[in-house]
Amino acid sequence: MYKDLDNLLSAETSVDSWYDDGCMIASEILSEFSTEDWQELARKVLTKPLEWQKKLAYCLDSNCTNYELQILLSLLNIQDEELFVICIDTLRSYTTPESIKIIAENHIILKRVNELIPKSGVAVKKILEDFLVNIQQ
Questions:
Q1: 48 lies in which domain range?
Q2: What is this structure's pTM?
Q3: What is the CATH number of the domain that holds 90?
Q4: pLDDT score, position 16
């Protein structure tokens, strides 16, 4: 299944095509991942192109698994603001006490979110603020 996901995320698509169809297909593939698929994804995700990583981050909350959480946290270390915001947006769906604890204990993430809020547009600012509210509950 990992190879299917890799091929999908590597394919050249229009933005509309990705958000209309590609993301749903990727979520379906992710829902069928085995432990080995998740491990392979975790090993390779940081070696993939930025656009591939952005697509993945956008569709990772399909099951809110620990694998997905760890992959999103690893993607937050990449110095790209758009990828960071996509990851934060996805992390808003991680509402279990365990997930919230893991996220809240990562002070670097919280610092970066707080630094971005004042210089963000309305939509991004709302995502970032909602994220902070979610993890403070």
A1: 2-135
A2: 0.91
A3: 1.25.10
A4: 74
